Amino acid sequence: MPLRALLTGSTGQLGQELIRSCPADVELFAFDRSQLNLADADACKAIVDTHRPDWVLNAGAYTAVDRAEKEPRLAHVVNADGPQALAVGLAAHGGRMLQLSTDFVFDGQQGTPYHPQQSLSPLGIYGASKAAGEEQVLNVLGDRAHVLRTSWLYGPVGSNFLLTMFRLHQTKAAAREPLAVVADQVGCPTSTLGLAKACWRLMQRASQVQDEGIEEQQLPSILHWSDAGAASWYDFAVAIGELGVDAGLLQQAATVIPITTAEYPTPAKRPSYSLLACSSSSAALGLEPQHWREALKAVIAVLASD
Predict the structure, then answer these.
(1) Percent of the chain's residues with pLDDT above 70
(2) Contact between 164 and 240 (Cβ < 8 Å)
(3) How many Å apart are CA 137 and CA 34, to the nearest integer?
(4) Catalytic center residues
(5) How many angstroms separate the first and last alpha carbons of the chain?
(6) Phi–psi pair at 196, nearest 5 degrees
(7) How far apart are the C-alpha atoms of 252 and 270, rounded to whole Å?
């Protein structure tokens, strides 16, 4: 029998890649915000009860990091109460859940990569709401839930740093103006192509372990996944310009100049160093991440082929 999976956030950048890369042996029920509002707990429980999936893949979220500072209740309802309601629905008939989360659950102060089991210390409302969502899902479902944290997500569709930088490289280069980008925040850009692959691998491996009853091969409850390496937003912006020109998507890259976080204030504080330690998760999944620059080339190649 095919694996039955229910996907939230189907029109988001990750949701679209999960649909595109869905394995042939998975029967996917995909819902966007207009079809399933994560702020509606009753609707969340009802849709799980209707479809009775083997898995809920919760890629939907409130992701407006700065706006969350003014809408803390809505951010919490979508990012914590919604996942909890999905989990409660699953608990009734034995399904499993993959909850996507973020490097923003950490404060970025330790200066070394964060391991999956470290204590959480979010700086803002968005990170706090995602941390609460993790806790709710794990409390309800126990070992039938997995949290997968990622960082600096981007892809060929949606709203993300890559597509914004392409637009700014074009306009700034045409105007012969520099492009100022923050250089003192360090993390790792993560392609939706690689993250979607990790999601499907996790679900299939966890289901296989469950079917075979091999307890010593149980996957961890909390995993980290990002592309390999490290970068600042400045590094990422420079690479986007260089590779965009190489792929013929940009006639000319703008000159990128580094600035500090203090020079680009935002309503929400960002972690200054939010690298995720992914080696244990990579081993558990049997999957090696690409270096972020190679992953960026692959995404740009998708854009160039459209």
Answers:
(1) 97
(2) no
(3) 23
(4) 126
(5) 35
(6) -60, -40
(7) 30
- In this prediction the pTM is 0.94
pLDDT at 213: 52
Q: Parallel, antiparallel, or unpaired for β 26-31 and 256-259?
A: unpaired
DSSP secondary structure letter of residue 93: T
Q: CA of 185: how far to CAs of 235, 243, 272, in Å?
A: 10, 22, 4
Report pLDDT for 195: 98
| pLDDT score, position 93 | 85
Query: Residue 44 and residue 139: Cα distance in Å, rounded?
Result: 17
- 210 — pLDDT class (breaks 50, 70, 90): low
- Position of tokens 């008939």? 93
DSSP letter at 216 equals: G
Q: CATH number of the domain at 3-151+191-226+276-287, please?
A: 3.40.50.720
In 185-290, where do the E strands start and end? Answer: 186-187, 190-191, 222-224, 231-232, 256-259
Please enumerate in sequence order all residues whose Cβ is within 8 A of that of 152, keeping only pairs 6 or more positions apart, or say none. 103, 161, 187, 188, 189, 190, 226, 236
Tell me the C-alpha distance between 297 and 191, whole Å: 10
* Measured distance CA(62)–CA(77) in Å, rounded: 9
Q: What is the mean pLDDT of the chain?
A: 95
CA 204 to chain centre: 19
Q: Compute φ and ψ for 284, nearest 5 degrees.
A: -65, -35
Where does the pLDDT of residue 216 fall: very low under 50, low under 70, confident under 90, or very high at 90 and above?
Answer: very low
- Which residues are CB-neighbours of 194 under 8 A, at least 6 positions away? 225, 227, 289, 290, 295
The stretch 67-72 carries a mean pLDDT of: 97
Which of 207, 210, 220, 219 minimizes the C-alpha distance to 3? 207
